[in-house]
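Tokens for GlpC protein. Go.
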Amino acid sequence: MSVIRRAPDRPPATSPNDERYLEPRDLEAELRRTFQICHECRMCVGYCGSFPELFARVDRDIEAGVAEGAEALTYDDFKAVGDECWQCKLCYIKCPYTADEHAYELLDFPRVLARERAVRAQREGIPLVDRILGEPQLIGELGSGAVAPLANLVQASRLLRKVQEKVTGISSEFPLPEMARRPFSSWFAEHGAAAGAGKQGDVVLFATCYGEYNTPAVPEAAVRVLEHNGYAVHVPGCSSADDPRDTPAGALTCCGMPNLDGGDLAAFTAKVKHNVALLLPHVRRGRKIVVIGPTCGYTMKKEWPEYLQTAEAREVAAATVDMMEFLVLLGREKKLNREFKKGLGTIAYHAACHLRAQKIGFPGARVLGVVPDTDVRVIEQCSAVDGTWGMKAAHYETGRKYASKLVRGVAGADVIVSDCTLAGLRMVKENGAKVLHPVEALAHAYGLGPTP
């Protein structure tokens, strides 16, 4: 057995506000402790490439007679394991050694690898591919609107995508989302609220970068469904009804998750502070923050309060709900509108990893399951995209391998549904089928808006 103790001497550093967080020696000790426990357990070997990489490197040192466990692992070993982690969080959910399970080991494999990425960025700088993928809102602002046709033409060119891959490190094979000719905020600014919107209350919609610039049909459907259920929808920067005296001016920005993928703590923190300042007045007026993307929702609920360690961030996080989770809550209160116009047939519902990581089950499947003439089949398999990881050329083929069970699982359905836009892109590429967000499918069942 290894000489590494299973119990930490003190709780692991999980926030940059802890002076140990960016201290390399403290991190290396925590990585070795974590890897030792994982090597002894091996339950998560099939989740991603990190675990086979970890086990092989520990086994190498044991077989060479230089270690009894993970104590001889080096900086290069840590990097190799970290590079294979796409932050799906599934290992944390299943791990029996976490704080959530009241275990003394206090293990958090994805969080310690996120910390490794931050320390590596401090030491080596942030790679170009992470700098680019870390700014989806900036890319959206530059590529959507009037220039969208040109941007989409460039993205459709295999030759230009190959050149782009060489320069940026973004895979030429990964199907990047098209740019929207009309961003969601432009639509919302001209949108007239449905009759009855507001009789049940008010909510704030976090449309996400992809919803704003790439898939505006998703937040548009969310607005229609929320209004159909009696809620007035507010979007900071677009809601003229908000009183400027208690609602700061400005629009929401990216949740910051892509910055965490690259270890850019400064950019992440700046975005979180900006968003918290805009959302807090709404929260204090009793409004829920409804999020249409599970990765953004996870980041807002779990990472914002952990990284900022402020009362304001915790307050906003506590008011944040996933779009379909919000509708499930309405159903429990007997407030969900059940007047459907049409059934949806057989649905293959992809259970997104970052929804499962929030431990809220499969809310989209539960809501769509109440639609008449609809059969929902849940597919609990990872897309191996999870943020920006799967977009990188270095990981594209590995991602395809780990996503193969998902690709097979959704085949043959009348409708494929996923809360995760990026997972949807993977399925579009591999299956050649259209993938809807569950709120789009629900809007279709209600008979709201254009047919998806």
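The first strand starts at residue 201 and ends at 206.
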